């Protein structure tokens, strides 16, 4: 599932490609992926221009010149492609926004969605999300306050979007590895210096992942050299049984709260 760095990468690239271009056509191929009748969706979106693409947690917000917002959550298996019909991957699309010769294809929206909302509706839908971990106001002390009230294991708490926005399975494991803390640790056992280490690692790992385009491998458009560059840099995620990059011992793969979890039992305490 795309997480904060993947959606930030999409945001950056889409602001360079589709902003200020009129949406000439809209094709709805799966009504369950939208929130209003197709005729209303088309009426509110066609001939509008996207003024800016913003991100909140794992969501993208396509702000239209009408004041409406297209709120996107890709969920598990969702991704996008921008290009011509000739270049498009041979995959089923659920919604297509056409900008002349090129279109933005929304792929794999079986669990995800693209909703057209007013600004107020979008704000209400996102109101329950936790703080953004890369905001300047998100300090180590703020992290300790948020997590310190919990009595659960570290990883499930870090991936709870109401607690911290944007972190999912991959980056929770990578952050814990970088901080040398087991993702299975009970939060009440963490010392103040460990909260500080987690905060440093959140900044370091998430910023590096953004810089290298996240871990998802599907390019947004032909010639996209950014998307997916962090995949080969993952230290533990999806590397069960492989040697740890620090100590060489095998990475452990287990299940925690119905999620896969990856860690090094030797390097993480």
TrEMBL record:
Query: Any idea what this protein is called?
Result: Formamidopyrimidine-DNA glycosylase
Q: Which Gene3D superfamilies does the protein's record reference?
A: 1.10.8.50, MutM-like, N-terminal
InterPro entries attached here? FPG_cat, FPG_N, H2TH_FPG, Ribosomal_uS13-like_H2TH, Znf_DNA_glyclase/AP_lyase, Znf_FPG/IleRS
Q: Which family does it belong to?
A: Belongs to the FPG family.
Q: Which Pfam families match?
A: Fapy_DNA_glyco, H2TH, zf-FPG_IleRS
User: How far does the signal peptide extend, from start to end residue?
Assistant: none
What reaction is this protein's catalytic activity?
2'-deoxyribonucleotide-(2'-deoxyribose 5'-phosphate)-2'-deoxyribonucleotide-DNA = a 3'-end 2'-deoxyribonucleotide-(2,3-dehydro-2,3-deoxyribose 5'-phosphate)-DNA + a 5'-end 5'-phospho-2'-deoxyribonucleoside-DNA + H(+); Hydrolysis of DNA containing ring-opened 7-methylguanine residues, releasing 2,6-diamino-4-hydroxy-5-(N-methyl)formamidopyrimidine
The Formamidopyrimidine-DNA glycosylase catalytic domain, residue ranges: 2-112
Q: Does the keyword Zinc-finger apply?
A: yes
Q: What PROSITE patterns would the database entry show? A: FPG_CAT, ZF_FPG_2
Q: Which controlled-vocabulary keywords does the entry list?
A: DNA damage, DNA repair, DNA-binding, Endonuclease, Glycosidase, Hydrolase, Lyase, Metal-binding, Multifunctional enzyme, Nuclease, Zinc, Zinc-finger
Question: Could you tell me the Gene Ontology terms of the biological process aspect for this record?
Answer: base-excision repair
GO terms for molecular function, please? Answer: 8-oxo-7,8-dihydroguanine DNA N-glycosylase activity; class I DNA-(apurinic or apyrimidinic site) endonuclease activity; damaged DNA binding; double-stranded DNA binding; zinc ion binding
Instruction: Name all FPG-type domain ranges.
Output: 235-269
What EC numbers are recorded for this enzyme?
Answer: 3.2.2.23, 4.2.99.18
Classification lineage: Bacteria, Bacillati, Bacillota, Bacilli, Bacillales
